[in-house]
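hey so i finally got around to running the thing on that chain from the lab meeting. sorry it took forever, my laptop kept dying and i had to restart like 3 times. anyway pasting the input first so we r on the same page abt which one it is
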Amino acid sequence: MTRIALVVNRASGGGRADPTELEAELRRAGARPRRFGVDELADAVGWRPDRIAVAGGDGSVGAAAGAAAQAGIPLAVVPTGTANDFARALDLPDDAFEACRLAATGTTRRAVDLGRAGRLPFVNVASAGLAVAAAREAQSSKAALGPLAYAVGALRAGLTARPITCTVGCDGDEMFAGRAWQVIVANTGAFGAGAEVESASPFDGRLTVAVIEAGPRTRLVQRAYGLRRGRITEQRGVRSRDARTVRFEVPGGVALNVDGEIRRFGSSTELRVEPSAFELVAPGGEG
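ok and heres what got predicted. didnt touch it at all, straight out
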């Protein structure tokens, strides 16, 4: 019987998922679950499970992926957040009960890269500039609007936010210095409930960096369209490059949107990739 540490973020998705029902579904699928809070990851690992199943949004997935990578325990994802971009990017079930069944019975595993902003793990994207302003604007309307809150937040941010002054270095070489609307450091490349950096892959051992240079505010509509269509790096005025390590410098410090969570960093921050850092329980046949 598979021992599964069910790590639950009760606040994700407005608390719509019932942890008791998720735990019961894992039992019905033949697993032996034990429930932990997202702030109890050390206890979850210490229980020595066969798998960790994280029920939450992308921020919770990133934290659990970091713990799974360090412990060498496979990770399953039960998407119960608002956006669930990681599940979308990896073609995981979007239904929580179906995801529980996969967590309990899935035999296919995929080695997935993990990003880190300083010590903080992330699975999708760490981003500065408009993404931070958009996340703050979206926060108050998530409960009412669900995933649509991210589009509304992006629209509001585009009307009021200002470019940031920064320097971006990739693998020791300066990539960009100047003013930018947004700097995106991508692992899966998925964020904002449907936006994406199309060239990013969590399987290639690299991060994809996209810098949207400052310019007329009216051009932000085109940028938003490019992100939603998955073609942002093709646009003029957008620089992109793949790298294993990224040095991000902003005078006075910077706020980063890390898998949907806003975190403060110093004036110089290193972001890096850990190739094939954790194993993901994925749909498919015999692995």
